[in-house]
TrEMBL record:
It is an enzyme of class 3 (hydrolase). GO terms for cellular component: early endosome membrane; late endosome membrane; lysosomal lumen. Residues 1-19 form the signal peptide. This is 5'-3' exonuclease PLD3. The keyword Hydrolase applies. Keywords: Exonuclease, Hydrolase, Nuclease, Repeat, Signal. GO terms for molecular function: exonuclease activity.
């Protein structure tokens, strides 16, 4: 086309005037325009392939091939901590303790941990409880991993310890060779660093509700996920970690615009396409607060609202705290984004809403009137179907003396479409100024007959909902009696 274009134009010019010259001139123009069009199309396709071919290079360790798809053989495992003494009829998932040991065992080059506080050794309670053994074992393994006898670089981002919060574990780890950065979220956003996740060798991850606390392994009920062999997802979580790491550097403040290296192309609009256990899936990681979200990152609140909005049959929520306020704000502020969304889908689409909320002696009293109000949205004839249950982890007489323990600390949601596994309590503060993150897994498009993550999380929810540890919240429930008095003598 290019040669035809130049040739005919030249001949037309040289022969000048006359019938055939005009024809030739037209032909020349046509071929020239076609050349231009083809050139534009070629350049555009080059441009589209450019970013992915850069990511494809082995030095980046990525295996994103085209657009947002990932060819890693990702394996996902739902993991739980079931408090000692609790019994369920149906099966429970592998333990968080075992999965942390596995992750430590896998580590060859790096381990990055984002954490709220550290009490893996039972020094803070003076209780000498034998169930502290698992936390102490994890701490021992981490100390060993941090030492310069291994080639593994251990980095820990932790919320700046406040007041009486113990720092012993952190000091021991630092002495052993771990790199620890304290993130002063109170100064940065008036919140805390509440996120809990691990990244191993930039390819395996853990994310969930468990704190770096021995109680999170044997005394508090927790839920999380581990994803092995998934560098695409790990690299994306690493970007969230790197933001904490940056903010943990003395003197650094939140940039008004995060540099491109923190940006992501995986979000609720364009999630990562990958295989979990060979089942085609999409996934993305959300983050809070908004000021810590770089370009492209879905805010945690937006993730929750869109997951609820996407549900057609049911929304099951299991969180420790659910309060439509900014809990820690003075003066008081009402905050109803999530509450509105739940009521909206219940009303507009007759979606069945179930909330499984924790109740213990430290529960905020203001939580219950709001939960009762939600539970009142229940009417068969108008197809309004919201129900709330309170989950109690009963203590034994000896366990009663361990402070801040025996509670359901889960933070997840499952709908008829997707599973959302997070690290935040559900009240305004956690989305406005506190750092948290979540993994959203969508397998609705799969044709596989394997159990999906959504089905597994649903099974956990239904197991807990139907267990004798859950009690329906009605207008008459005696909260004080239910939440603070021992109910299950047997345990
Ligand atoms: C580890 O570091 C310590 C102190 O920094 C040093 O004395 C020791 O030789 C190192 N050990 C190894 C195996 O490099
Ligand atoms: C990761 O994948 C490799 C190769 O398929 C496999 O040998 C290894 O066991 C996997 N690791 C984990 C932790 O699943
Ligand atoms: C899950 O994926 C389907 C397409 O496969 C999409 O229609 C739906 O909106 C997604 N849901 C969420 C909550 O991302
Ligand atoms: C969640 O809320 C409870 C009660 O307000 C609080 O004690 C806890 O620190 C919050 N975060 C965690 C650890 O989940
Ligand atoms: C994925 O496979 C592992 C075993 O390799 C299993 O434990 C886990 O439950 C599977 N996950 C799902 C969602 O089926
Ligand atoms: C186990 O099943 C029995 C009989 O169905 C029931 O009475 C009991 O409450 C169940 N226990 C739990 C922990 O779910």
């Amino acid at each position: 086309y290019f040669f035809a274009c130049t040739f005919s134009l030249l001949v037309a010019l040289l022969t000048s005037v006359g019938g055939p010259a005009v024809q030739l001139y037209k032909w020349g123009l046509f071929t020239c325009l076609t050349t231009l069009l083809l050139a534009v199309m070629y350049l555009q396709s080059m441009y589209m392939h450019l970013p992915t071919s850069v990511l494809d290079s082995p030095t980046h360790g990525f295996s994103v091939s085209r657009h947002n798809s990932c060819t890693d053989p990702c394996r996902i495992v739902l993991v739980e901590s079931i408090p000692e003494g609790m019994e369920f009829n149906c099966s429970t998932n592998p333990s968080i303790f075992q999965s942390w040991l596995n992750l430590i065992g896998e580590a060859r080059s790096s381990l990055d941990i984002a954490s709220f506080y550290w009490t893996l050794s039972n020094k803070d309670t003076h209780s000498d409880d034998p169930t502290a053994y698992q936390g102490e074992r994890i701490l021992k393994e981490l100390i060993q991993l941090s030492s310069n006898e291994t080639a593994v670089s251990v980095r820990i981002a932790v919320n700046t310890p406040q007041g009486s919060q113990p720092v012993e574990d952190l000091n021991i780890l630092m002495q052993a060779g771990a790199d620890v950065r304290k993130v002063n979220m109170r100064d940065l956003t008036t919140g805390v660093l509440h996120t809990k996740f691990w990244i191993v060798d930039k390819k395996h991850i853990y994310i969930g509700s468990a704190n770096m606390d021995w109680r999170s392994l044997t005394q508090v009920k927790e839920l999380g996920v581990v994803v092995y062999n998934c560098s695409c997802l790990a690299a994306d979580l690493e970007k969230i970690f790197e933001a904490y790491w940056y903010l943990g550097q003395e003197g650094n403040t939140i940039p008004s615009h995060w540099p491109a290296s923190y940006a992501t192309s995986y979000n609720k609009e364009t999630p990562l396409e990958l295989q979990f256990n060979g089942t085609s899936s999409t996934a993305y990681l959300s983050s809070s607060p908004p000021s810590l979200c770089a370009d492209g990152r879905t805010q945690d609140l937006q993730a929750i609202l869109s997951v609820i909005d996407d549900a057609r049959e049911f929304v099951y929520v299991a969180v420790m705290n659910y309060i439509p306020t900014l809990e820690y704000s003075h003066p008081k502020r009402y905050w109803s984004d999530i509450d509105n969304q739940l009521r909206r889908v219940a009303y507009e689409r007759s979606v069945r809403v179930r909330l499984l909320i924790s109740c213990w002696s430290h529960s905020q009293p203001s939580m219950f009137p709001f939960l009762r109000s939600l539970a009142a949205v229940q009417d068969r004839t108008s197809k309004l179907d919201i129900e709330v249950k309170l989950f109690v982890v009963p203590p034994t007489s000896s366990q009663k003396n361990i402070p801040y323990t025996r509670v359901n600390h889960n933070k997840y949601m499952v709908t008829d479409k997707v599973a959302y596994i997070g690290t935040s309590n559900w009240s305004g503060d956690y989305f406005v100024n506190t750092a948290g993150s979540a993994l959203v897994v969508n397998q609705t498009a799969t044709l596989s007959t394997e159990l999906t993550v959504q089905e597994q999380v649903q099974a956990v929810f239904e197991r807990d909902w139907d267990s004798p540890y859950s009690t329906s919240l009605t207008q008459h429930t005696d909260i004080k009696k239910l939440c603070t008095e021992i109910k299950y003598e047997k345990i």
